[in-house]
C-alpha cells in the first residue's frame, strides 16, 4: 500500500470518527449531575435531592425558597432547551434561534401582545419583591440561571451554534401566553365559522357546531353577500395562518383536551376521595410535564410543572389534589372596524373617529438583519388583519379586523393564582385561588382529605350584551357589541359535593343550573358520554366500592362511545348482498365491539370509512378549507349533527345536477374505504389491523432534520386507542395512516386515603437529554398501559433511589 493511499485512508477514518468523538465528548459534558455535591448560589442552607429510579427529583430543603432555587436548577438541567423554546414562542423570538423561517410566527405572537403583557406582569412582580410568590419565582429563575452560567450548554444549542440567554421574570408571562394561545379555539374556529355563514348561508350553519346562533348573519353588519367582505377574507386568512403555525411550529406541547374525574368518599372502597386526571396535549420530546417532589418543614407537594413556570399546574399535597381539563370557553372576539376613508389610521367608534395607536417591535433574526414590525391597535385590541395583507394581497382600503383577548388584560395574574393553588389548605382557600385564574379557561377538579370533591370552571367570562354572537365577526364601529367588563366568578359553572358523589369533565359543555350555556368550543360528546356510562350511579348500579386499579382501567379504556351512531347509519345505507371481500369486511365492522386494540380490523374499517364520509360530506363546499375545518372540534361535533339529519344541505354535492342523499354519500364512502385498504394492504381483510395504521412517534424540535430524528425523536411505536376514546390518541385524518399528534400527557390517579399510593406515568421520560437513561425509559411502560408510583414516602424514596445530590451554598 502506497504512502499516499495510507494517508487517504487515515484521513477518512479520522473524518468518519470525528462525529462519534464529538458525541462522546458532548455526552460527558451535558449529562445531568445527580450525585455528589454542587454549589448553588443563593441557598440559605444545604438541599438534599434524592432521584428515584425514573429520575424524579425529591427535594428536601429547610425553606421553600431554597427548594424553589433547587427546582429551577434541576429543571434546567433536564429541560433547558424546552424551557427556552416555550418562552420564545410566546415572546416572538424564535427567529433568533432558527432564522428567517420563524419570522412570520414571531410576527403573529408579537401582534397578539403576549410580550407586552409579560412586561406588565414582570413589572408588578418587581414592584412587590417581598410577596412570597414573587420571591419564589425569582428563586426558581435564579436556579435556572445558575445552571446556564456554570454548566455546558445542552446539545441543541451546540447544533444551532447559539448560547442560551438568562431567564427574566418576563419569561413567565411569555410561557403562560403560549399556553393560553394553545387553549384558544377561537383562532381556528371563528374565522371559518364566519366564512361559512357569509359564503354558504344560514342553511349550512344550522347543522354546525358550535350551535348555530339564529340571526347571526341577518343583521345589517353581517348580511350575507355574494362575496364576503374584505374583513372576512382577512379573518379567514388569519385562521389559515394559525393552521400553518400550529402545523409547522416546533413541537412544544399544544393543549388539545383532557379527562378528569373525582369520586366522593361514599363512592370508593377506601372511604376517601379518588382523583384521576389525564390532560391531552400535543406530543413532544421532552414530555410536557416535569415532575418534582418538594418537602420542607412547613410545605410538601408532588407537582407537575410546565417548562419555565415556577409553580405546579397539576399536583397534590398530603391534604389536597387537583387536576385540570380545558374549559373551552370563548375568551376571544374579533371586531370588524370601519376605517376613515380619508385617514386609514383612524376608525369609527360609537360617534367619532378615533386614532389607532401603534407600537413598534424589533424582530431579531439569526443570520440576517432585524426587521421592524408596526402593530396598530384599536380600542378593542391589536389589528390582527395587518398580518394577513401580504398573504392575500388586500389593498389599503380593506377594513381592519382587531382582536380582544382576555389573557392580555393587564389585570390578569394567573401566576399568583397558581401559587395559591399550590399552597391551599382547605376547599375555601382553593376556591378563592382558582377564582383569580383569568385565562386560559380551565375546569379544575379537586379533592381533599376532608372528603370534599369539586370542579370549578375558571377564567374571566367577558360580559357581552344580549344577542352578541361572539363566534362571528363583530361590529366594532357601533360600540353596541363591545365587552362590558367581566362577569363575577359566581357565574362560572361549578360542581361542589354533588349528591351523586361523582364529578367528571371531558371538555364537554356544562352550565350553572338555571343559567344559559357559556359560549365555547366544546369537545365532541363521546368521552363525556363514556364517562357517564361508566361512572354515573344510574348506569353502574349505584356502585360504592371503586378502587385505584379500576380507575386505571377507565383511563385506559379504548371504546368509542358514539361510534355506533355512524356505524349504524353506514350499515343501513349498504345493500344486503355484496361481493365476497366486501361482505367479509362488512361482517368485521358489524361485529366490532367499538374498541381499538392493535389487532382490531373493525377499528381500521370504521376509521377509513369515517374519513371518506367526512371528506365527501364537507369537502365539496369547503374545498381547500377542509383541512382547516378538520383541525377543529367543529368537524366531529358537526358530523354527528349532520349524520342525524337526512335533509341536511351538506349531503348534496356542489356542482352536480342530481341531489345526493345521505345514504348515497355513506355507501360511496364505504366503497372508497374498501378500495383504499385493498390498495394499501391487499385482498385479505384479516390483515387490515389497527396496529398497522395507527402509530405514535414523539417528535423533538430538531427531529425534523434528518438524521437528527434518529437521535432526538422517540418511536415510532404502534399504539392502541383512538381520538374518540377515553385513552385519547388524537390524529389528523389522512387516507392511509393515523399518526398520533396528541395523547394523555400524563396519567395520574391520586387516592386521598393515602397519597403515598398515588400512581402516574410520563409518555417518554423525565430528561430532555438524548444521552440520559431517563430520556425515554417510561415509554415502554406507557405504551402498554403501565403506571409507576408517585413517591412521597421518604423510606420508599430511599429504597428506590440510586443517586443522591447535595446542593450547598
Automatic annotation (TrEMBL):
Protein name, as recorded: Penicillin acylase family protein
Origin: domain of life: Bacteria
Alphabetically ordered keywords of this record: Calcium, Hydrolase, Metal-binding, Zymogen
Record's cofactor remark: Binds 1 Ca(2+) ion per dimer.
Membrane in keyword set: no
Co-factor requirement: Ca(2+)
Family designation: Belongs to the peptidase S45 family.
Organism field: Aestuariirhabdus litorea
GO biological process, one term: antibiotic biosynthetic process
Ligand binding (Ca(2+)): 330, 333
CDD domains associated with the record: Ntn_PGA_like
Amino acid at each position: 500500500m502506497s504512502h499516499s493511499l495510507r494517508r487517504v485512508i487515515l484521513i477518512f477514518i479520522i473524518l468518519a470518527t470525528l462525529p462519534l468523538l464529538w458525541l462522546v465528548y458532548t455526552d460527558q459534558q451535558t449529562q445531568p449531575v445527580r450525585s455528589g455535591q454542587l454549589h448553588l448560589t443563593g441557598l440559605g442552607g444545604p438541599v438534599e435531592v434524592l432521584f428515584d429510579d425514573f429520575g424524579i427529583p425529591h427535594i428536601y430543603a429547610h425553606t421553600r425558597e431554597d427548594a424553589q432555587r433547587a427546582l429551577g436548577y434541576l429543571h434546567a438541567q433536564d429541560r433547558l432547551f424546552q424551557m427556552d423554546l416555550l418562552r420564545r414562542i410566546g415572546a416572538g423570538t424564535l427567529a433568533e434561534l432558527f432564522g428567517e423561517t420563524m419570522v412570520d410566527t414571531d410576527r403573529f405572537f408579537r401582534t397578539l401582545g403576549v410580550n407586552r403583557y409579560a412586561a406588565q406582569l414582570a413589572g408588578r412582580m418587581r414592584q412587590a419583591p417581598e410577596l412570597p410568590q414573587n420571591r419564589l419565582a425569582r428563586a426558581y429563575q435564579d436556579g435556572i440561571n445558575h445552571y446556564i452560567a456554570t454548566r455546558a450548554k445542552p446539545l441543541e444549542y451546540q447544533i444551532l451554534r447559539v448560547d442560551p440567554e438568562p431567564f427574566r421574570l418576563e419569561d413567565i408571562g411569555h410561557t403562560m401566553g403560549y399556553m393560553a394561545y394553545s387553549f384558544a379555539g377561537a383562532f381556528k374556529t371563528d374565522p371559518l365559522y364566519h366564512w361559512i355563514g357569509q359564503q354558504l348561508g344560514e342553511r349550512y350553519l344550522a347543522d354546525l357546531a358550535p350551535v348555530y346562533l339564529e340571526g347571526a348573519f341577518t343583521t345589517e353588519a353581517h348580511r350575507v353577500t355574494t362575496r364576503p367582505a374584505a374583513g372576512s377574507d382577512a379573518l379567514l386568512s388569519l385562521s389559515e395562518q394559525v393552521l400553518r403555525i400550529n402545523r409547522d411550529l416546533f413541537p412544544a406541547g399544544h393543549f388539545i383536551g383532557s379527562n378528569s374525574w373525582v369520586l366522593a368518599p361514599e363512592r370508593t372502597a377506601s372511604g376517601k376521595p379518588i382523583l384521576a386526571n389525564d390532560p391531552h396535549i400535543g406530543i413532544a420530546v421532552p414530555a410536557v410535564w416535569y415532575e418534582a417532589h418538594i418537602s420542607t418543614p412547613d410545605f410538601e407537594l408532588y407537582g407537575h410543572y410546565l417548562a419555565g413556570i415556577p409553580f405546579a399546574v397539576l399536583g397534590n399535597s398530603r391534604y389536597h389534589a387537583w387536576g385540570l381539563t380545558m374549559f373551552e370557553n370563548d375568551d376571544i372576539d374579533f371586531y370588524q372596524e370601519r376605517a376613515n376613508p380619508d385617514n386609514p389610521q383612524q376608525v369609527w367608534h360609537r360617534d367619532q373617529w378615533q386614532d389607532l395607536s401603534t407600537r413598534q417591535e424589533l424582530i431579531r433574526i439569526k443570520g440576517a438583519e432585524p426587521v421592524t414590525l408596526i402593530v396598530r391597535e384599536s380600542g378593542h385590541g391589536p389589528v390582527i388583519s395587518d398580518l394577513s395583507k401580504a398573504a392575500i394581497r388586500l389593498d389599503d382600503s380593506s377594513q381592519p379586523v382587531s382582536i380582544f383577548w382576555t389573557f392580555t388584560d393587564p389585570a390578569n395574574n394567573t401566576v399568583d393564582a397558581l401559587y395559591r393553588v399550590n399552597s391551599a389548605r382547605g376547599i375555601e382557600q382553593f376556591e378563592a385561588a382558582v377564582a383569580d385564574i383569568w385565562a386560559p379557561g380551565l375546569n379544575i377538579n379537586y379533592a381533599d382529605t376532608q372528603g370534599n370533591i369539586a370542579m370549578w370552571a375558571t377564567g374571566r367570562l367577558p360580559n357581552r350584551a344580549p344577542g352578541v354572537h361572539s363566534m362571528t365577526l363583530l361590529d366594532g364601529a357601533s360600540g353596541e357589541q363591545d365587552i362590558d367588563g367581566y362577569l363575577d366568578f359566581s357565574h362560572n359553572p361549578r360542581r361542589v359535593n354533588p349528591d351523586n358523589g361523582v364529578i367528571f369533565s371531558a371538555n364537554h359543555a356544562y352550565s350553572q343550573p338555571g343559567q344559559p350555556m357559556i359560549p365555547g368550543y366544546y369537545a365532541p360528546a363521546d368521552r363525556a358520554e363514556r364517562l357517564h356510562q361508566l361512572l354515573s350511579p344510574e348506569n353502574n348500579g349505584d356502585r360504592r366500592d371503586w378502587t385505584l386499579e379500576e380507575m386505571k382501567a377507565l383511563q385506559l379504556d379504548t371504546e368509542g362511545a358514539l361510534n355506533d351512531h355512524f356505524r349504524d347509519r353506514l350499515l343501513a345505507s349498504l345493500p344486503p348482498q355484496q361481493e365476497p371481500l366486501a361482505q367479509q369486511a362488512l361482517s368485521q365492522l358489524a361485529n366490532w365491539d367499538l374498541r381499538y386494540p392493535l389487532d382490531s380490523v373493525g377499528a381500521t374499517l370504521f376509521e377509513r370509512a369515517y374519513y371518506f364520509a367526512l371528506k365527501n360530506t364537507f369537502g365539496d363546499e369547503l374545498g381547500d378549507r377542509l383541512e382547516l375545518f378538520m383541525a377543529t372540534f367543529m368537524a366531529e361535533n358537526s358530523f354527528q349533527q349532520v349524520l342525524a339529519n337526512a335533509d341536511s344541505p351538506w349531503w348534496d354535492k356542489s356542482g352536480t345536477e342530481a341531489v345526493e342523499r345521505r345514504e348515497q354519500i355513506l355507501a360511496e364512502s364505504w366503497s372508497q374505504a374498501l378500495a383504499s385498504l385493498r390498495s394499501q394492504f391487499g385482498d385479505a381483510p384479516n390483515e387490515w389491523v389497527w396496529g398497522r395504521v395507527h402509530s405514535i412517534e414523539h417528535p423533538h424540535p430538531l427531529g425534523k432534520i434528518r438524521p437528527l430524528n434518529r437521535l432526538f425523536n422517540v418511536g415510532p411505536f404502534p399504539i392502541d386507542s383512538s381520538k374518540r376514546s377515553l385513552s385519547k390518541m388524537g390524529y389528523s385524518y389522512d387516507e392511509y395512516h393515523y399518526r398520533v399528534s396528541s395523547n394523555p400527557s400524563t396519567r395520574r390517579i391520586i387516592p386521598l386515603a393515602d397519597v403515598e399510593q398515588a400512581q402516574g406515568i410520563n409518555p417518554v421520560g423525565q430528561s430532555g437529554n438524548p444521552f440520559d437513561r431517563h430520556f425515554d425509559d417510561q415509554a415502554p411502560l406507557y405504551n402498554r398501559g403501565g403506571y409507576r408510583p408517585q413517591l412521597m414516602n421518604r423510606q420508599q424514596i430511599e429504597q428506590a433511589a440510586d443517586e443522591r445530590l447535595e446542593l450547598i451554598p
